[in-house]
Structures are given as C-alpha cells and as structure tokens.
Amino acid sequence: MNGHTNHDRTIWVGSHDAHTLDAVSAVNPRRRRRIPGIAAAVGAAIALSACATDAPQDTWQPAGENAQKIHDLQWPVFLTAGIVGVLVFGLLAVTVLRFRDKGQSMPEQTHGKPVIEYLFIAIPAVILAAIAIPTVGVVMALADTDDTECVINVTGQQWWWEYDYEVEDDGTICGFAPTAAEAAPIVTSGQLVIPADTKVLLRGTSRDVIHSYWIPRLNGKRDMVPGRVHYLRLSSETPGIYAGQCTEFCGLSHANMRMETIVLEPDHFQQWLDNELEPYTSPEEGTLAAAGESTFITQCSRCHQVNGLVDDRGTDDPDDDTLVVSYPDQFVYSGAAPNLTNLMGRNTFAGATFDLLTDECRADVWEADPEVFGERYLAGVTEDCLNEIELREWLRNSPAKKPMYADAEMLTETDGKTRGMPYLALSEDQIDELIAYLLERK
Amino acid sequence: MAIIERPTDTPAVVSPDAAPAVATPATSYGVFRRPVETTGWKSWLFTIDHKKLGIMYGVVAMAFFVIGGIEALLIRLQLAGPDGTVLSADAYNQMFTMHATTMVFLFVMPMAAAFANYMVPLQIGARDVAFPRINAFGFWTFLFGGLFLNTSWILGGAADGGWFMYAPNSSVAFSPTNGVDFWALGLQITGIASLTGAINLIVTVINMRAPGMSLMKVPIFTWMIMVVQFLLLFAIPVITVALFLLMFQRSFDATFFSVEAGADPLLWQHLFWIFGHPEVYIIVLPAFGIVSEVLPVFSKKPLFGYPLVVFSGAAIGFVGWGVWAHHMFASGLGPISVAVFSVATMAIAIPTGVKIINWVMTMWGGKLKFTVPMLYAVGVIVQFTIGGLSGVTHSVAPSDTQQTDTYYIVAHFHYVIFGGAVLGLFSGLYYWWPKMFGKMLNERMGRWNFWLTIIGMNLTFGPMHVLGLQGQPRRMYVWTENRAGDGFFNIGFWNLIASIGAFVLALGVLLFFVNIYVSHRKGTQKAPLDPWDARSLEWITTSPPKEHNFDRTPTVGHLDEFFHRKYEDRGEGDHHDYHQVATAEEIIAEEEAKGDSHIHLPSPSYWPILLSLALPIMAYGVIYNIWLIVGGAALALLSMYGWGMEPHTAPDDDYDPPAAGTELEVAAHG
Would you state the pLDDT for residue A161? Predict the structure, then answer.
C-alpha cells in the first residue's frame, strides 16, 4: 500500500464530467484539467482502474511525470480495446443466437461482400492510426533528457542494485551542496534516494547479466545491460517510498532483486546527503558494538565497504590507523558488494528483499502521508524497530535465506568466486555483535 | 515402390477394412532391402506414410503436452501462496524454462505438424507428401530431439535461463549445469525436423495438388500451413545460427556473448526475436486454418472473404518479420527504433483483425450447428480476440514498458497461444478424429471437455492480467505477503485463483484423454463417412483413408469441392435453392468404381529413423565426449549411404500377400 490510499479511491463525479482523482492529481490540480471530461461511462471505466491501488507496484497509479505520460497514453487505449472487444463479442453473440440451426434452409453460398471486407480493414486501420500518433509522441517525449537536473549512476548486479552519486563540476551532488563536509561521491544500494520535483536521470549498466530497473509508479522499465549504458528518467512531486523490482530474468534469485526509490522534500534530501557524508565514528569502547566492529573487519569488510572504518587492532600507536578498504572483486564474481556505511538509514536489505523494519514500524514509514514521510524515513532503523529475526537469519546463513551461488561445488566456472554472499559460519555471539554494530550504521 | 493394380472393370465397394494390397517387383541390392510390413510395430517404425507419421506426431506431441502441463501445474502450485516451498528457486527456473520450451517446440509446433502431415496431402488430393522418407526423418528427428532435451532433467538439471535464454545469463559462468547445452543442442535437432518438414510441405502443396485445384481453390487450412512452412523456412535458420553461437560459447569457449571480450548482449536478443516473432505466427496460423475450415462446415456457408483470409494470412507472414523488436521495448534500443516497431506492431493487428471479422461474418446468415469442434472454433474467436486486444495495449511502446516482463504479458500470450492455437488444435482434433480413426469422439464428453477447458483457462490466465498490472513480474519463484497489497486487487488472491484455474484446466484437458478411451471402447459405432457434412477433399475417401488415400485422384472444380458434389443450386437468379444430389457414400463409391489402375506408393525405409538417431548421439558427444560425435557421425554417414543406395522398391521375396477377402486383384510388376 502506498501512503495516500484514501485519495486514490476517491471518484469525483461533476455535473458535466466524471473522472478519478488519483494520487498525482491530488497534489497537482493541473493534471485534473488535462484529463478530458467525457461520458460517465468512461469515468466508470477509469474508476475501475483507480480501484486497483492495492499492490505497491501497481502500474495504474502513476506518481511521477513520466509514469503519468504513460498513463495518459494507455488508459484511452485500454478503453478503446475494451469497447472494440464488447462490439466484437456483441456481434458474435447476436450471430450465435440468431443463426443457430432452427431448421432453416441451406444458406446462400456467398463468398463474401467486398464492401464489408474493406470496411473492416479501414476501421481498425483508423483506430490504430489514432493510437499510433500519440504513441510516437510519448516515445519521443520520454526519451527527451535535455532538462535533466540530476544524474545518478545505477548498476545492476546479481541480485541487488548499486547507486553512485557523483560530485558535479560545481561541487554539488544532484544540485545540493553538502552543509558541513566536502562533497564526495556517495555509494549506496537497494534504496535510491532522490529529491522531489527534480528531473533525475539514471545512467545505468550492469556488472554481470541483464537486469531491468523498474519503479512502476515513476516510469516504465529499462534494461541495464552489461557493456552498455542505458538511461531512464525518474521524478516525482510526492515524497514517499516507491517499490520496484528487477524485471529482466537475471538468474537464480531474480525474484529477490528488488529496489525502492525514495522521494524526499529538498530539505530532507539535504539532510540525507549531509548524513551520508558524515565522517565515520567508531562505537564506544567496550560495548557490544565495538566488538562487532572487530568482527565486521574480520568477517565482512573483505567485501562490504564501510566508509572511514579504520583497523587499529594490533597497534598501540593511535596514529597508526589503517583505513579498511574492502576488495570484493577478489571474492565476488560480479565484482562488488553492497556498501554498508549507512545500512540502517535504509529500511530494506539484501537487494531490498527483506525489511529492516518490523511490520508495524514498516507501516509507519511506508504508509506515511507525504508531509510526514521524510522525517520518518530519515529516522532510520532504531533498535526497537529492527526486524531482528530476518537479519539474524540472514547473518546465520544468507544463501539459505536468499538462493545464491555461494556453494564451493557450484563455483567451478567462476574461479571459486561467489555470486552473492557465502555462508560465513558465524557464531551466535558474533551475530549479536554484528547486529549491535550495524545498528549504529546510519 | 508398392504398386496396387486393379482392373477397372472390377466392381469396387467401400472397403476401408481391407488391408492395402502390396505387390513389389524383383530388384534387390543385397543388404539394402526395404521393409515391407504393413502391420505391427515395424510398420510404424519404418513407415513413410504421411498418415501414420501424422498420427505419431500427434501422439508424441500430446505426450509432451502432458509433460509441459505438469510443469505448469508445479509452477502454479509454487505460486498459489506466499513464500512457496514446492520448488526451489533453481527447480522453478528450470520448470518455467522447460514449460515454455516444451509447449512451444514439442507440443504446439508438432501438433500442427501432425495435422499438416495428415491433412495436407488429403486436402489437395495427393497420395503422400513430396519426400516421404524425409517426412519420416523429420518426425524421428523431432522425437529424438525432444527426448534428448528432456533427458537433461536426469543428467544434472534442465536449462534454467528462460525459453528466451538471454545472453549473458546463458553463459557457463551464470548457468553452470549442462541444462543450457541440452537446450541449445536439442533445439538445433528439432529445428532440423521443422526445416525438412517445411521444405517437404512447400514442395507438396506447390507441385502435388489435384487437377483443377488452382491456388485460390486450395483449402484454407492447407494455405495457412503453407504460409507457416515459409515462415519456418526463414525463421529456423536464424534461431539455428543463434543456437550455434551459443553452443560454441558454452562448449568451445567462444566469446560471441562475452561482454568482457567486447560482445553486445543485444545480439542474442535480435537473433532470438527475429526467429521468435515469426514463431508466434508459426504457432497460431495452423490453428487459424483449422478454425477457418471448421466454421464454414458448421455454418453451412463458405468461408467469408476466402481471398482476404488467404492474403491476410500471407500479410501476417510478411509483416511478422518486421515487428521483432517489440519484444525489446525495454532493452534500450533508442526512441526511433521503438517508435517504428511500435507502429509496425499496430499494423499487424489489421490482418489479424480481418480474420476475426471474417470468421464472425462466415457465421452470420449461416445455419449454425454447435458441435464440439464448432464450440472450440467459436472459443478461439472469443479467447483470441481478448489476447489480440491486450496485444494492442502493449503495441503502445510506452505502455509496454510498464507491462513487459510482467504477468500481463503472460496473460496476453496465453490467451493467444492457448486461446488461439491450442483451442484451435482441439477443434481440429474433434473435427478430424472420425477421419483419422474412423470413430466419433463422444459429443457429451466433448462438451464437458470444452467448457472445463474454457472455464479453466479463463480462471488461470484472466487473473494474470490483474497480477501484471499490479506489477508482478514474470519468472519470480516466490512472492511475499509484505509486497502483495491487501485490497481487492491484491496479488495473493489472484495468484490463488490462477492456481485453482490451472487445475480446472488440467481436469478439462484430462477429459479429452478420457473421451478418447470412452469413444474407442468396444461397441462404439463406426463414424459415418461424412459426419459433419463437410466441404473439402479429405472427406471424399474412406475413414481412415486407405494407404493410397484416394482410389481415383479427384478432379477439382470448386473451392469447396465436396460440398458442390453433394449439393446443387436449383434456384434462379438471386433465389437459391440447394438440393442434395448425392450422399458421401455415393460419391466415394463412384470414386472407387472409377479407381486409378496404377497407384504408386513409396515403400517403407529403415534409414530415416537411423539417421535421426545419429543426431542426439552427436549432441551427447558435444556435451560429454568427442568420441560420441565420431560414433554418431559414422551412423549418420552409414544411414545416408543406405538411404542413397536402397532400392526404390521392396524386393519380390519380401512380398506380403494381400489380406484375405480383398476384392483387389494384385499383380507383380517388374
């Protein structure tokens, strides 16, 4: 469910027109005027579709400019197809009822009537031409990227997405200048955070097989192909969390390759940006989390980067801190692993497959109204809200929770490198420590 | 050459039970004798009779239909509830890959080949196809290819990359079992079967039509089959190239699809869909042909706009080559390509729509009899129209980027393939069953079969429209409650309905097999010679037809030749008054009485099946051991040599005396 279902189901029937008021038109009155007022039957047909607000990946519930363009194009096509269907079935029904064998004499052995035949070529031709012209227009409009305001790199990998925010020439990220720190590239995964009212252009590729980036409520899908760079626009005026899923079959855990796009008000986005760039702070000495830091360094940091994490074990010299830099290309066939610097700032993990929030806390964020969404999202995952059960299961045996090629027997063709996260044989104590450590990563 | 000789003054009777009389001349080339059995298992193994081959195609296709259906049921069981545990992710991926591969390549295509083999020679008044031994080779190659493909299940796992097998996911690093190797090699083998069949049928239809049958008098089913054979002729080489590249990629370390070596993964997609889109029409046009035969018969009217249906079939065949990239609207082709292919895709809806309207207009003004074949034919009109209309919604490229790779597409093509092709094939089964087996299928049972199938398919595939528009992608082995929604359109409810529907559908299909049993029990009546008051040539002979099809090669004066022999219009001017002037029995008796004195039929042969057998042996060799390739190649060479050197007839001493009681006089010919 999205955060504004109450609006979605509203159907406004005016004196001379009838149409639905969907999520976008609720905040954007211009949209309402653009939908032509036509017969009440049309309104009813759309009302039916507007009821379809159930699943988070509903394709009939646009929440952004690009998806809206598609929607404005597609509903008249659905409607036309429906009407044509009714007419054909009506004709067929009349034929079946009227001409069933009631003992009438042998019908005339006519081979056809050219007028009818030409007519039935002409009618669909005209209808299809009427559909074709706006189609070409929308195809071109969706491909137009001249007014892009923010470029973000997105890379698919079995079975998660990585986002890479570059620092622009003017020292900003996505048009926002960091408040305290100096701007540096931000690398995250799973949840893509974008500012509202900003025309974002994703520049996408893949590190292994073909994946497809799809946030239905924001735009159609685009395949991300290794060796190629493809572009996809996203934008929304409504803060919220928009779910999506990889739609190009990408192997074993294709079903577990999800993603969300988070739309934040500009000041919330600024806050998010500043938080991402905050320097690393080690857990307090002697805490469980501090133990977790060492465990993380020994067990996780070969693949998973935590920005600014230093390894000062085995030395008494406080100046001899070695920056921990992970090297996933040594272990992971596709070459990368999710950056965990601010894991608890996102609310899903493992390719956005599992929730970091318990069901209640999740509902608070996912179904929040646009006005309060930003605050709740930025609060991140607290200890009370942590979906500890699934996170534990994951740390205990990740390939059992999400099928991956992590078994030595399967790895003959990849020089022993895993595809996905291997079984680490962590002890329960180590898992306790790691969770305590990870809870501070936000 | 078996020669059936009969003095023309012998009074002939309709004697379908009489075993074909075979007489053979006295040439023999040592070991290369030809088999002569007309009964028993050898008569099937070495047969080159298009009717026997047609039946074998049908039986094997039906067996694969059952296998593909079981795969489908497992898929639906897995998705019936959240977090399904019936199948592992790995098994699920194999299941949907093999479900599609089996249904497309091992059921629908060979089932159409079954009808094409059996009916095309009969419909054009020929005694067999142009190259009977190649015909046998085609069947065995298909069978061995299909079996080879399915042995992967017990040899380490089947292919798991989806039937579209996109690169680079099909490479060894991403699919380390031998499944994809089996897939690539198996489809190359079945491709050989399709290709030889295509050439055979094209030559047959062009060269072997009965006297008087000009192209515009060719029955519509034969026309559609011919269009399909041309599509196969040009499409199979393309997929073969792709499969060949894939085989080299996987087995011999080539880098056609290795991105790190500079390959572009879109190459595979273009190759696959240039084959894959014509394939859609390869699948559906035979069924269109069947429907176009059945509707006129049960409407008692000729096909409305026959020339237009022929031309629109041909037009679909041509335009079908220009729309492949509509499978790739999300692939990142760029807006110009997308716009062009989008408009081309809309264009192909026009000839398709023409067929639908012509079918309805065929029924309009007719005298409709709703037998089971007719029910299925009307079912095609309804279900295929739904599939066609949802097809229009994703010809709109931007709209397709929301729909592609979701269950909406799954819904669409199942309405087209099941609602169009499979229902059409069932219509053909019921319609031609008495022709092929001399028994009527039980009508009552057939109605149950039909209605359960229709209800089942709509329950299964209808909800998939909802699932897709709600954003459920294809090929996901599991869905979670958390992301399923909770309103009327929640994914959980509709997945459950689809799964229930799948079992209703399975029950419906099962009834077909029950019907075969019921209809062939002891004591069931023989089918009348012309049970449907049919219109085309295949009914101007006994049921099942004798080995030589027609005692006299029929001469054709009309499109609906059989109808015009039975009925005469005694009306004047615009007033029509049709009188029956002859019964089927009388017409066939007359044909027999004036039977041709020399009927030349080819003898059976050992070599087609042996040559076919060589192919999977070589394919196993590609996967396991190079010496198997050598062995297989040796068998292939031997078989070709035998094929080339065997006498064109069976020798004298293999002569089978004709069965007692036959009225035909048989003479040996030198």
Answer: 98
